[in-house]
Structures are given as C-alpha cells and as structure tokens.
Write a structure and sequence with these properties.
It is found in: Cell membrane. InterPro entries: AI-2E-like (IPR002549). Belongs to the autoinducer-2 exporter (AI-2E) (TC 2.A.86) family. It is a multi-pass membrane protein. This is Putative PurR-regulated permease PerM. The chain is mostly helical and about 375 residues long. It has a domain of about 150 residues. Strands 1-2 form a two-stranded antiparallel sheet.
Length: about 375
C-alpha cells in the first residue's frame, strides 16, 4: 500500500434539503387537506351543480332551436322553454296526485270491507292470511303492532324534513340550470378562445359529441318510459286492476331509473293487482317479466344506438356511485355522465395514437354520432 493513499475513503458529502423545499412540501400537503375538507363541506352544492349542468346540456339544444325558429333573444327563448317545461311537470304531478288523492279516499272507504273479508277468509287476501296463519300472528302481536304504529310519528317528521330538502334542491337545481343555459354559450366561447387555435376545433367537436350523448340518452329514456306506461295501463285496465292510471304513471316514472326502476314499478303494480285478485296479480307479474325481456332486447338497443354504449359493469358502477352521491337524481344522470367520460377518454386515446377522428364516434363499434 502506498503511503500517499489514504487508509480510509472520505464519506460522500450529501447536500441538505433546502428549508424552502421542506416548507413548500408541507404547505402543499396542508393545502391538499384543506381542499379536501372544503370539498367535503360543499359536496352537496357540487352535486347540485353537476345535476344542473346535466339538465343545462340536455335543454340547450331545445333552447337553440326555439331561439332560431322564433327569432327570439336567448333570454326569452330560455324562459319560454323553462315555463313550458314547468307547466308540463305541473300537469304531470297533477295527473298523478289528483287521482291518487281521490282513489286513496276510495281505498280508505273500502278498507273495512277488505279487513272483514280477510278475517272471514274471503277476498284476495283472506285465503293467503288463512294459509300462512297471518291472522293468528296479528292476534298474538296486537300490542307490538300498536306500539310500532304509535311510534311512526318520528319517522313521519323525518320524511317531511327530507321532502322539504328535496324541494329546496329542485328549486336550486332549476335556477342553476336556467342560468347555465342562458350564459352557457358565452362562457363556453370565452373558455375555448383561451386555447390554441389547433385545439379549439377538437374541443368543440368533443363538446358537441358529449351534448349529443346526453340529449340522445334523455330522448330514448323518455320514449321507453312512455311505451312502458302506455302498455302497463292497457294491461292493468283490461285485467280490471284498480287505480290503473296512477299505477301506470308510477311505473313509467320508475322506468326512468336505471337498473332498479322497472323492478320497483313492477312490485308496486303486482301488489296493487292483489286487490283485484290473485289471478290478476299473476297476470300482471307475467306481463312484467315479458316486458322486461322486450325492453332489454328490443327497446334498449334503440336507445343505445343513440348514445354511448357502456359495459354492463360500467353501468352498474356508475349507477351505484350516482345513487350514493345524489340519490334518485344521481341514478338518473349516472349513465350519461359515464358515457361522456367514455367519449372523452376515447378521444384522448385516439389523439395519443396520432389518429384524431374526423368525426366523433361512440361505442366499441365506433359508430358516428350523427
């Protein structure tokens, strides 16, 4: 070993992390936590904004049509569309509530007769009560049933509060969507103008693709709901089921809810059909089984041809997330929102591959939107 060489190698010198970098990292973490807390606080407002944006995108083409055909200002065209829409909604609610109130009164007058028939083993429920010893169970547990009914006041107050919150949410969403439709074109053009010229055409194309997805989905869903309601009314009417109009309207509204809506409407219809008789209830149940096959294999493909084709797993996940975030309204907008996300992802994928589309396409088969 040479005397000039050191016996031990000097350790490498490590540079210290600047205090400014440490402070910046801690600050970013704190800002992230603060942002998450703020989002958690305003989560309901964000959901309302998302739903309002969905309805604004859906109604914007109709407002454009009214504006161009009638040559009105956008403010007047938007007001006209919303007034007509609210009148139609009020008419729908009236058509549902008025006969419901009348027929509920009629049902309340007939309840003693149903109870008497059930106790004597007659009527649609009598044989079922006797067969499964339900009457004996009711006799033995009268005190528990009375106490349960007596404690129903607190849940009723809770439901009233929930209904009040739903009304506030509907009013807020309506106002937000109205303002979005009114000011949407100006804000969109101002935002797109900030992009480079070569990207403006692409952004407009994708935005048009997403808007057509939402509009096509809503149109198809409403068409299927109308078909379901009309056919259900015909079946209930000819089988002699009471409250046929109200039940058919309820089934049509439920059919707008993805996945579970048709089943929910079918259960209510079958239960109401039991008032007419067990045979009628069986006929109604068989009808709904047949109709579900027609809707899934005949009507739904027509809807999907006008919107984005989604994988069944994606549909289920999107609906579950929508229900968790915003209840029934979230379920209604879940599928078109998932379709919009798929459209954007597909466009980004095509651009990354260096193959930008000349025309927007949807679904795995890449069919043109138009």
């Amino acid at each position: 070993m040479s005397l000039d060489q050191p016996r031990y190698a000097a350790p490498e010198r490590r540079d210290r992390v600047p205090v400014r970098t440490i402070a910046a990292t801690i600050g970013m973490v704190l800002l992230t936590v603060l942002a998450l807390l703020v989002v958690q606080r305003i989560a309901r407002t964000l959901v309302w904004l998302a739903i309002a944006l969905f309805f604004a995108v859906a109604l914007s083409p109709l407002v454009d049509l009214v504006q161009n055909r009638l040559r009105l200002k956008r403010s007047l065209a938007t007001l006209l569309v919303y007034v007509v829409g609210l009148l139609l909604l009020a008419g729908l609610v009236t058509a549902f509530v008025t006969p419901l109130v009348n027929q509920v009164g009629q049902l309340s007058n007939e309840i003693p007769k149903y109870v008497q028939d059930a106790q004597t083993g007659h009527g649609p429920f009598g044989s079922l009560l006797k067969r499964y010893d339900v009457d004996q169970y009711i006799t033995k547990n009268q005190d528990k049933i009375r106490s349960a009914l007596a404690g129903a006041g607190v849940p009723a107050l809770h439901y009233v509060a929930v209904a009040g919150e739903a009304v506030i949410a509907l009013v807020t969403i309506t106002v937000l969507s109205f303002l979005m439709v009114l000011e949407g074109p100006k804000l969109t053009e101002a935002a797109v103008a900030q992009l480079p010229d070569d990207r403006q055409t692409r952004v407009r194309r994708v935005a048009h693709d997403c808007a057509r997805t939402v509009t096509g989905y809503i149109t198809g869903a409403l068409l299927i709901a109308v078909i379901c309601g009309v056919l259900t009314f015909a079946v209930l009417y000819f089988t002699g089921v009471p409250f046929a109009g109200v039940v058919a309207l309820f089934v049509a509204v439920c059919d707008l809810i993805p996945l579970v809506g048709a089943t929910l409407g079918a259960v209510v219809a079958v239960v109401v059909a039991l008032f007419a008789g067990v045979q009628e209830a069986i006929i109604v149940a068989v009808w709904f089984v047949i109709y579900q096959q027609l809707e899934n294999h005949l009507f739904q493909p027509v809807v999907q041809s006008r919107t984005v084709k989604l994988n069944p797993l994606a549909v289920l996940v999107s609906v579950l997330v929508g229900v968790e975030l915003a209840g029934i309204l979230g379920a209604l907008v879940a599928i078109p929102v998932a379709g919009i996300i798929q459209v954007i992802i597909r466009d980004v994928y095509d651009v990354r591959r260096g193959q930008p589309k000349q025309q927007p396409t949807v679904g795995e088969e890449r069919r043109p939107v138009g």
